[in-house]
Amino acid sequence: MVRGEKDSDCPVESAVKVLSGKWKILILWELRETPKRFAELRRGVTGITEKMLIQQLKELEKDRIIHRKDFHEMPPKVEYSLTERGRKLKPVFDALWKWGREQIQESS
Amino acid sequence: MVRGEKDSDCPVESAVKVLSGKWKILILWELRETPKRFAELRRGVTGITEKMLIQQLKELEKDRIIHRKDFHEMPPKVEYSLTERGRKLKPVFDALWKWGREQIQESS
DNA sequence: TTTAGCACTTACAAAAAAGTATGTACTATA
DNA sequence: TATAGTACATACTTTTTTGTAAGTGCTAAA
């Protein structure tokens, strides 16, 4: 944390801080049920570039929301999965999904 | 929507689209219980500038998540409140709040 | 009469996020 | 031998987001 910057005491604020951005929630949503490989995620998250994907994966790993498992194989095999902390986000995803679906239905 | 751009069929994706950014969730969080005036929001959302505040309020209004009520008084009085659609986000906020609090507790 | 407060608006600049294009090391398959 | 696929890395540019600073029109209080 930058000196002079106060750490947020508000849980919502601190949650938003690690989840905001265009891709993170979508990546986590892809991983909600099962671990996936880099290329699977690339195909699963429509529109994301490789650069953004690793960048976001790295940040999520640093925040201990996902775990990176390298199988040290050739050709390379790496698997990403939710950590315990990441799995605890399920209620958030569920609520978001429900809300999103309702809005889509309303507008049709 | 821009021509050629596919509307997301994923509820999570469409929800993220209208809620992402540094301030929106925080603004909505301020409004979760009671309507508030512009100046109250400015004081409540720590760190936000006036420019960002109206900008985000306008977008949220356009997305019909909040409602703007102008009392046509002098000095000006305007009140912002959640719409039905906005109130339905409560489960999202609750889940986010819980998760954020858990993470804060863990790290202490 | 100056100040403060209300709810903004605007021009401009800085910072952050995201995208493009290319390259790496390795292997298997055509 | 060329191509494709794995999982990235890096330089560079563009786009988007956010911030800074100032100003508007109005009123009430000091």
TrEMBL record, chains A, B:
<dbReference type="InterPro" id="IPR036390">
    <property type="entry name" value="WH_DNA-bd_sf"/>
</dbReference>
<protein>
    <submittedName>
        <fullName>HTH-type transcriptional activator HxlR</fullName>
    </submittedName>
</protein>
<keyword id="KW-0805">Transcription regulation</keyword>
<dbReference type="InterPro" id="IPR002577">
    <property type="entry name" value="HTH_HxlR"/>
</dbReference>
<keyword id="KW-0238">DNA-binding</keyword>
<feature type="domain" description="HTH hxlR-type">
    <location>
        <begin position="10"/>
        <end position="108"/>
    </location>
</feature>
<dbReference type="Pfam" id="PF01638">
    <property type="entry name" value="HxlR"/>
</dbReference>
<dbReference type="InterPro" id="IPR036388">
    <property type="entry name" value="WH-like_DNA-bd_sf"/>
</dbReference>
<keyword id="KW-0804">Transcription</keyword>
<dbReference type="GO" id="GO:0003677">
    <property type="term" value="F:DNA binding"/>
</dbReference>
